[in-house]
TrEMBL record:
Family annotation (Gene3D superfamilies): nmb1532 protein domain like
Pfam families xrefs: Hemerythrin, ScdA_N
Main location: cytoplasm
Species whose genome carries this gene: Limnohabitans curvus
Name of the protein in question: Iron-sulfur cluster repair di-iron protein
Amino acid sequence: MTSQTTQNFAKADQSLGHLAIQIPGATAIFRKLKLDFCCGGQQTLANACAEKGLNTNQVLSEIQALEHHELPPLTSTSIELIDHILARYHEVHRQQLPELIRMARRVEAVHREHPQVPTGLADQLETMQEELLEHMAKEEAILFPLLKLGQHPMAVNPIGMMRLEHINHGAQLEKLAELTTQHQPPSGACNTWQALYAGTARLNEDLIEHIHLENNYLFPQFEPSAQTSHCV
């Protein structure tokens, strides 16, 4: 398996800007609570919460909940692995893509005159969201229930289809990397732009790990070669 990403461990004495950039998804929480992470990004989370009359610990807990990097043990049963994929990846993709699209639209509009503005990024993310939602819905409604039944002969064809769609997801990630200059914001980029690229980098990492777990650990257990290999 690929190595786990180092956790950021959000703290109340860190600035809103730092948290927005380092923890993808934090921007959605800040927007909901009307905490200014862009122009007011130098303020600490604790001070910002105090000014708004918010419970700092509750807000911090919400942010820390985004720092999910756990990987299942290699000894996990297929059912445990499926449940992990649903919670760690399917639900996370559903949360992260709408916020990334929103930030991309803003960056493209506000910085449209910048030579490195990622024109077309929001459209690319919307395409990825549409394809991922459809893909995950098929897994949840058809494939995963079959796999939870055990060595079901009807599972082989859906697995083949999911593998083909995974190839397309990989191609979409390559386009994403091109649009974001490998997820590296330009010098002097605002907090929103930096948070956007931190989020696209996390999406890239999450989707690669998601596909890896399915292709190399889950699916082989239900294919003809399952008894001889766990890799493809």
